[in-house]
Amino acid sequence: MFMRRALSTNALVISLLVSACGDSGSSQSPSPNAARSQGAAATNSYTVGGSVSGLSGDGLILEVNGGADVAIGANGAFVFPQAIESGTAYTVSVKSQPSLRHESCVVSNASGTVTNGNVSTVSVDCTVMDGFVYVLNPGSQIGSYSLTPDTGQPVPLGSGTPLPWIPTDLVATPNGKSLYVVGMQNPSGGMNQLSTFAIDSATGALTRSGPTLQTGGQPGSLAVTPNGSLLLVANYGDSTIKSYTVDPNSGALTYASTLTIYKHIRHRIVVTPDSRFLYVLNGDIDTGHVVSLTAYAIDSTTGVLTAGPSFTPDDAAWAMAPDPLGHYLYLTVGSGTDFAYPTSVVRTYSIDSSSGALTAVGAGTGVAVNGFELAADPKGKYVYVMDNNNYNSTNDVVIALAVDRASGTLTQIAGPIRAGSDPWAIACDPSGRYLFSANVSPAPAGSMYNDLSEFTIGQSGSTAGTLTPSAVGIQFNYATQGGVGQNAIAFVE
Question: What pTM was estimated for this model as a whole?
Answer without folding.
Answer: 0.76
